[in-house]
Amino acid sequence: MKCKSARAVVLVRQREPLCQACLEAGVSGKVRALKSNKLLLPGDQVVLAFSGGFSSQTLLRNILAMRKDASTPRKERGKIEFGLSVVHINEATAHGLSAAAAEAHGRAVVAAAQRCGAGGPAAAVRVVPLSDVFLWLDGLGGQPGPQPGSQQQQQPRGALASAGESCHGAEATAAAASAAAAAVAVAVGSRPGAEERPAPDVEASTAPGDAAAATGAGREETTGAGEAEARAAREARLQALLQSVPDPTGREDLVRTLRTRLLAAVAGGLGAAKVLRGDTATVLAARIISDTAKGRGYSLPGGIQLLDARGAARGEPAVLQPMREVTLKEAVFFCRLRGLEAVQLPYSRAAGERRSVNALAASFVDSLQANLPSTIFTILRTAAALKPFPFNSSEALAPSAAPAAADAAASTAVTARVEPAASAAADADAGRSSGAQQPGNGSGASECQGLAGRGDGGTAVVSCCVLCRAPLTRREREAIAAAAAARSARQLADQSAAAEERGLGSGRASPGEPGPGADGRCGSPSLASAAATGAGVEQSSSLAVAGDEAEQYEDELEAPFCISCRSQILFTPEQSAGTSTLVGALALSGSVGFAGIARSKTLAVLPAAFR
Amino acid sequence: MVRVHIEFSGGLELLFGNQKEHDVDVPVQDGQQELTAGQLIAWARDNMLRERPELFVKGSSVRPGILVLINEADWELSGATESLIGDGDHVVFISTLHGG
């Protein structure tokens, strides 16, 4: 017992009894580490990701307690003056709820945030539906920030407005919150036939005119039909996207990725440079287990630190996880003892349906923790032994003066981490020009460096998965580079063979070349070496034989996704000769010929920014 | 009979007819004035649970991940399943299934 005076109410960690005051002091002390680590500074604009659960509420309460009240000029010791927005990404529909239930859930979350002390103009609460990810990250070229003169810019503003933005007006807290909920309600609730899904409209055209005319909470009249239709189309598209993923784990991961990226986009739109997440130690421990199971060992250390600024060079907000040393149990008791109720989505899994890897990992950690209270911290300590990335250190927060220089620096920093030869960038140019003919893995590596070294016009190079933003391993990058080289070599070959007949292909077919539908394993050594060498000419001949399907497939190989996203979310390789999904995916990304033909239904429906 | 006020939170209420608060009379062995928490859990599983028992119980205790409070204090302080629940006590089951 810490203070040895008050009554103990909870047992934390290794059987340590705490009273309420000591529990609260412990939790707030950990959140306050933001201040001592200089990660939360006066003048910062911050978005708090609020799910309505116990850890979100605990985080919100503690963050508000750290904040200096801006209305009084009196100095308050220990408090910081920063701007705060509370954002809830409403993914209820992704879990199968109807539009009306989703809207009710959104209202409940707003109420929960208000109970924690948010809701005034100084801590506005916004509810953003997950389907808005198509608004923000579709056709904006991956740059969720403001683009001058772009018509698309109108849409996110409209979305923010209809989500109840109250930045510009000093509206009463209750009025703002209820108006926000009403705006959401009107937009969502007016969709006809909420129960049945309309035919997925992949080509959802959200005309800028609709969104520009979309009204916000401040205005009385609502466009009704135009905005509601657009929203319904986005919802349908979201459902189509989720249905295209056959695996429950992949689906959950995709929802998580969309949520994370939408949060970053919304935060960027609000001018916030930092996003606070309430992920607890318990949740992180489960994620460490599930990430390891999915083969994400390389990118694992990047996502479990206090700071993750991997997108800072691109202008994306940094992500902070101040609750990473607070267990979920502490957060639950923190809320419970203050009378705060959590808002949860109902269990979405039908009885008998396969559990996801994430759910299994969480249940594993919970079971172990029940008998061995040191479980969570043992897992965290073990993962802490992995070296974090440069973007996990607070230096990554410093804004860069020249974007091109920063990108090159960031990418070489990441690649230099695994490839000591930083000067390979110079070799790469030479290597690339004759890349198609060079044998051996060396050319694969230098090809990667080539791609990494050249920031074409300052754009970010492929060092992170475009979907989940996990750093790409060297193997993944090599595979992507090899596919890109093969494609460009194929284009060269096509051009040179244009006048002649395509017999070039059939005559030069490599031995053991499989046709479509062949075994996907890496069992064909000749093809393996051919692919690894990036011998584009031979590969192009094989491709010419297989035709357009293969070309589309090659494009997918070239797409910059990590193995985990590729195998779980994006591609559905045919199950040939018992090839497991992961092995099949590895085979695919190793550019080994044709593992059946991968049909990526998901890729087509993904927002443009992810491709 | 021991009268217990049971509360379900964190999504558990959906397994119990979507009702958060319950006042129940639990039968006890002759001569006893109290029942153990383990007995209460078994009784709740048999008499109150509408569906999906595996989400509430595991063996003789609650499923790992479900927190139990007896009179607003952690039940682990009083012996977990061996904690004694008397007449008028308030027991809360909170599920942490979805994190937060």
Automatic annotation (TrEMBL), chain A:
GO cellular component entries:
cytosol
Q: Where is the signal peptide?
A: none
Q: Give the originating organism.
A: Pleodorina starrii
* Name of this protein: Cytoplasmic tRNA 2-thiolation protein 2
Q: Where along the chain is composition biased (Low complexity)?
A: 203-217, 425-436
Write out the annotated subcellular location. Cytoplasm
- Spans of biased composition, class Polar residues? 437-446
> Which gene codes for it?
PLEST005650
Region Disordered: list its residue ranges: 139-166, 192-229, 425-447, 493-525
| GO terms, biological process | protein urmylation; tRNA wobble position uridine thiolation
Q: What is its main location?
A: cytoplasm
Query: What are the record keywords, sorted?
Result: Cytoplasm, tRNA processing
Family per similarity comment? Belongs to the CTU2/NCS2 family.
Q: What is the recorded function of this protein according to its Swiss-Prot or TrEMBL entry?
A: Plays a central role in 2-thiolation of mcm(5)S(2)U at tRNA wobble positions of tRNA(Lys), tRNA(Glu) and tRNA(Gln). May act by forming a heterodimer with NCS6/CTU1 that ligates sulfur from thiocarboxylated URM1 onto the uridine of tRNAs at wobble position.
Automatic annotation (TrEMBL), chain B:
Q: Where in the cell is it found?
A: Cytoplasm
Top-level taxon of the source organism:
Eukaryota
Per UniProt, the keywords (alphabetical) are: Cytoplasm, Isopeptide bond, tRNA processing, Ubl conjugation pathway
Post-translational modifications reported in the UniProt record: C-terminal thiocarboxylation occurs in 2 steps, it is first acyl-adenylated (-COAMP) via the hesA/moeB/thiF part of the MOCS3/UBA4 homolog, then thiocarboxylated (-COSH) via the rhodanese domain of the MOCS3/UBA4 homolog.
Q: Which GO terms describe its cellular component?
A: cytosol
Associated pathway: tRNA modification; 5-methoxycarbonylmethyl-2-thiouridine-tRNA biosynthesis
Task: Give GO BP annotations, semicolon-separated.
Answer: protein urmylation; tRNA thio-modification; tRNA wobble uridine modification
* InterPro entries assigned: Beta-grasp_dom_sf (IPR012675), Mopterin_synth/thiamin_S_b (IPR016155), Urm1 (IPR015221)
Q: Which residues carry this modification: 1-thioglycine?
A: G100
Question: Residues involved in crosslink (Glycyl lysine isopeptide (Gly-Lys) (interchain with K-? in acceptor proteins))?
Answer: G100
Query: Looking at the keywords, is Cytoplasm present?
Result: yes
Q: What does this protein do?
A: Acts as a sulfur carrier required for 2-thiolation of mcm(5)S(2)U at tRNA wobble positions of cytosolic tRNA(Lys), tRNA(Glu) and tRNA(Gln). Serves as sulfur donor in tRNA 2-thiolation reaction by being thiocarboxylated (-COSH) at its C-terminus by MOCS3. The sulfur is then transferred to tRNA to form 2-thiolation of mcm(5)S(2)U. Also acts as a ubiquitin-like protein (UBL) that is covalently conjugated via an isopeptide bond to lysine residues of target proteins.
Recorded hits in HAMAP family, A to Z, give: Urm1
Family, similarity comment: Belongs to the URM1 family.
- What name does UniProt use for this protein? Ubiquitin-related modifier 1 homolog
Q: From which organism does this entry originate?
A: Pleodorina starrii
